[in-house]
Amino acid sequence: MTIQDMVRVLNARVLIGEEKLDMPVYTACCSDLMSDVLAFVDEKTVLITGLTNPHVVRTSEMLDLKCLVFVRGKVPSEEILDSAEEQGLVVITTKATAFTACGLLYAEGLRGVPVPLEWDMEGKK
Asked: What 3-state class would DSSP assign to 63?
């Protein structure tokens, strides 16, 4: 799947990074807790979130993410968009909820970031 495919599936609007829509994506992570993203994501992926604060961009930078998807029609401030653009991120927004966005993308073949099998149901080793 490419980011352009994601835009189509989510009926999304591209906020920055239109020149990178042909970039392939293989996994996604959905969370509003950046600590969870930092704990479970260790590869270039897509972050689906409803948060529009600077922590999202900082987390993306730390993990070298490819794309941010803001759900529920949220649009981050110009300051956050400028910061994301400096990092080379693609940023899109969709009116879909996080649950629906994830379901639509999963149905089209995008998978979640693998969680190590040794983790139990409480997220502990």
From this structure: helix
CA 73 remoteness from chain centre: 14
Query: In sequence order, what DSSP letters do the residues of 23-52 get, joined into one string?
Result: -B--EEEE-S-HHHHHHH--SS-EEEES--
CA 80 to CA 59: how far, in whole Å? 12
| DSSP states along 66-101 | SEEEE-TT----HHHHHHHHHHT-EEEE-SS-HHHH
Which domains does the chain show, CATH number per domain? 3-112 (3.40.1390.20)
Residues 65 and 14: their CA atoms lie apart, in Å, by: 16
CA-CA distance, 8 to 41, in Å (whole number)?
25
Q: What is the mean pLDDT of each run of 10 residues along the chain (125 residues)?
A: 97 97 93 84 86 92 92 96 95 97 96 69 56
